[in-house]
Write a structure and sequence with these properties.
CATH architecture of the largest domain: 2-Layer Sandwich
Number of helices: 10
Number of domains: 2
Largest sheet: 6 strands, parallel
Helix content: 25-40%
Distance between the termini: 32 Å
Amino acid sequence: MAKSTVKPQQTFRLSLVGGETLLGRDIKEVLEERSKQTRISTYPVSAEGNFSEQEGEPVYLEPLSADSLRDTPVLVLAGSTAGSAKGLGIAQSLKPKPLVLDATGVLAGEKEARLIAPLLSEVKPTAGQLLVVAHPAATALALVLGRLSNHKTITSSLANIFAPASERGSRGIDELHRQTSALLAFKTLPREVFDAQLAFNLLPQLGEDSALPLPPLEERIQRELHLLGAQSKKAAAVHNHSLRLIQAPVFHGYAISLYVEFASKISRKDLEEALASAQVEVRSLGEDVPTNPDAAGTTGVIAGDIRPALGNPKAAWFWLVCDNYRIISDAVTDVVNTLASTEGPEHR
């Protein structure tokens, strides 16, 4: 009797700049879970060689180079602005060019950049493209407003978006932790990242010397929300939309208080049914209100505390939460899996 043979699973090569960042680690974790055929090579945030630590032991991380990237079909950028610029430059110098996936948004201004949000619509990647993953808050708003507009015409909307410390990576989380400890011990607060007291506080503006002011990020979310609306043919859903970004004293996950006014009267039940989908978990009246910890590690958006607006039968409030890193990591993994299924054996 002839022996049956099992064809070994082929691997798909991928390079990740910024593998040691919080975002980079989440991307790597999701790829290893959902794209088991992918072999990941990691490089420092700056794409330059330096020393780091793995499992308590010092290690030297090799710099990204043309040789290390050659014959690698995907380059994922999750590091610094300088590291992203270097990675893009190397990628564009190669033939054939790899697909570049910018998970940070810093390359959105490049003329060839294309904004993507797989949570909203399928992405069909090709070699040589520069794809920029949309900001998770913009993705969440575009998703929810798009689904609501399928139910009833939206006349206007506004959102208060509460940003977590993890938007600033491990330095932001560490500073919030140290500020909290310092306040409880009546000590001087560290202010290198936020240049203001964030612990036990809400900030509509950061200090003048903050590492990343709120207005540019607020503008990015607004701009990408409108671009996503146009891409998904839901421009009307995000028309007359205003938003404000607020720095919240939470470690992880975005929360959004969303107000939507419709062209006619609405009911809570109809709104819940309009939102419920594979991408949006809806918690009805009487269920626990969704929180940031609830969203940790979950795909998509959780919506709850949906209530008609007082004094306006045509409007309603929504409370939304999402895992900012997981939305990005899932987007990267979706694109990688799509490309891996179409690439030839020379990239495996």
